[in-house]
Each structure stands twice: as C-alpha cells, then as structure tokens.
Design a protein that fits this description.
This protein is an alpha/beta fold. Helix content is 42%, strand content 15%. The chain has a single domain, classed as TIM Barrel. The chain has an 8-stranded parallel beta barrel with strand order 1-2-3-4-5-6-7-8, surrounded by 8 helices.
Length: 266
C-alpha cells in the first residue's frame, strides 16, 4: 500500500486555485471547526502560532478526515523539525524565511528519503505510515511530498530565480508583512512599493512553472493576486476572525470603536 495521495500538491500541479485559511490559535477544536467550513487548505502555524509537535499532530488528526488539506508551517529552516512534522502526518510543509537556494535545496532534501533526500526513516513507528500499516510508505512518500518556501525578505526576492530553479520546490509563498518590514515599511504591506514587488514575484513564480502563494485579508488584493496567477491563497485567520467578530459584537451593544483592519494581512 503506497502513501496517501497529496491532493493539494496535485491541484497546484494542475494549476487549480486553492483558497486557504490560517490556523494560529493552536487548538484542534478550532482547526476541526474550520476544516469543515469549505476551504481547500488550512495552514497549521508552527512559526507564530503557539504550536508544538503534539498540537500540530492533533490538528492533523482532525483536519485529515475533512474536505480541507493541511499545510504545516515549521518555525524555521530546520531539518529535524521537517522530519518530525512529516512523521506526524504532514505531506505539505511551508518553510519561512528561505532566503537562499541553499536553504531551499536543504528543505527539499529534508522532506525526502534517500537517495533523493536526507529524511530519516522511522516510518514504521510514525503516524504518517499509519504506524507501519501503510507498508510501502517509505518507497512512495517522496512523490507526495510538497515543499512550499517563503520569500519574505528582499534577499529572497533578489535570489528568487535561483530558488525557483531548485528541484523539489513546488511553490513559493510571499510573506507581505515581513517583506514590507525588510523594505523599511513596517506595518505597511499594502504600500505601493511592496505591492509592486509582490506582483512581480507572483508573475515570475508562475512563469517558472511553480505555484505562487500568499496570505492576504484584503479582498481587492486577493482578487488581483489570483488574476496574476497566484494558486494557493490564504484569505484570513482564526485569530483575526475571532478578534474582529468579538469586537464588532461588543461595539454593537456596548458602544466604542472597532480597530481599522484595512492594512491587516492576517
């Protein structure tokens, strides 16, 4: 029996748009609720969310039976962390702050067993192989591994052509907030200069045969990115939805203002 098919990777390969939603609260309850909302994919955030390996595993367990596909963001360019989340059942991994082709190549290797990669083989005791019941998991897992790398600094943007040339990179995700910060425009992801860099990057990524991705809560920008060829687009987060919804409800009955979210990425 081979590894399960990665339908998210297949959709990107076929050029089908995938709309996603960020999971930053770090709980399986909210992940389970959101998994049945109709999104194509959910991002389980191990970088800025309060997640560890066990909470990531728990969220993978509840997202797995749903129509949504799980994408796990690790905290950094870390071979061991990639191995652990994949053993926990992740097939698609998003790696932040990938500034160089060397970082991208290392992550592509970390996701794959030898000879293509360097992933340690503990499949027989891992959730990814149904604890050894998927007998051909190690022989078939490489083809279902999907690597998404984040370009969120001007260093990464300047190295984008080289990053896109790395075998095993399926998509490049633009991080608007960090990109704006690296450009000296902290808190201004919608600044015209930042948006110009983002739009150029999306076009370049798609032209290279890779999938462009982004997180953006501004609907006008989202539709523009899709028009340019973005293929995996997250349109909001559990934290923002709860914060905005609760503030709006309180203001309705108690008065007071609601925060201006026009520049909010999440």
């Amino acid at each position: 029996m081979p590894a399960p098919k990665n339908s998210f990777k297949a959709a990107l390969g076929e050029g089908r748009l995938q709309i996603g939603f960020w999971q930053s609260l770090g709980t399986s309850i909210t992940a389970e609720i959101c998994a049945h909302a109709g999104f194509d994919w959910l991002l389980i955030d191990g970088e800025h969310g309060p997640n560890g390996l066990r909470s990531i595993r728990d969220q993978l367990q509840v997202v797995g039976p749903s129509p949504s596909q799980a994408v796990v963001r690790v905290s950094s360019v870390d071979v061991v962390e990639v191995k652990q989340v994949m053993d926990a059942g992740a097939q698609t991994v998003l790696v932040p702050i990938v500034d160089t082709p060397e970082d991208a190549a290392l992550m592509a290797q970390a996701m794959r067993y030898p000879p293509e990669g360097i992933r340690g083989n503990g499949a027989s005791v891992a959730r990814a192989s149904a604890y050894g019941r998927i007998t051909d998991y190690a022989q078939s897992a490489n083809s279902e591994a999907c690597l998404l790398v984040q370009a969120e600094t001007m260093t990464a943007i300047n190295n984008l052509d080289a990053i896109l040339a790395i075998d095993g990179v399926d998509g490049v995700f633009i991080g608007p907030a960090d990109l704006a910060t690296s450009m000296g425009l902290i808190g201004q992801p919608l600044h015209a200069d930042v948006q110009r860099v983002i739009e150029d990057a999306i076009v370049k990524i798609r032209a290279a045969g890779k999938a462009p991705g982004i997180l953006m809560a501004n609907e006008e920008r989202v539709r523009r990115y899709i028009e340019l060829g973005a293929l995996f687009v997250a349109v909001g987060s559990d934290v923002a939805m709860l914060a905005q919804g609760s503030s709006t409800l309180a203001a309705k009955y108690l008065g007071g203002g609601v925060a201006d979210d026009r520049n909010r990425v999440y």
